[in-house]
Specification:
Keywords: Signal. This protein is 14% helix and 52% strand. The protein is mainly beta. Strand 1 and strand 2 form a beta hairpin.
Amino acid sequence: MSFKILGLAALVATVTFASAGVAQAAEETMTSNQMQRTGLSGNYVGGGVGFGTGLRDDSDQSKFDGNLQGRVMVPRQATRQLPFSGRGSLLFDGDNVVAVPSVTYDFAVSDRANVYTGLGYSFVGGDGEFTPLGDKNSFIINGGFESVLQDNFVGYTDLKLGTDSFRNNSRGTALSVQAGVGFRF
């Protein structure tokens, strides 16, 4: 396994756990009135741009892409008051598309913003064609940040790490970063 993959995995893990730790520490120091923070509420659908790269031992492949992304907040009554969301992403370019459904745990960092982390699965449209998340279906670890920009508009950034994402290299890893704006409803 290359040092690039190990370094990237360490970076993703560090950012994810640091974000969770910051959110948890902030929550523990809040007064009871502040404990009512809900983070970003509601659902949204949006679009933006992204960049994906294949981190393989034999070569690096990179690709700019477009994305469509949506979030559906799971009612807290259904999850014992835990803040889960269902998310869906379509990453596309002129050659191929990949669909990524995922489930995330949302950490409220303010009344208008969340940091989230979760798991999903990528479904590659074209058989063997390179996408921003590799060239085969694979499990995805994702994380991101979302915040209300103004009224019903949301800005988001999202990072997806695909494990075992390449056909020709069973240990191939893919990384994709997206950013965009969504309409909240």
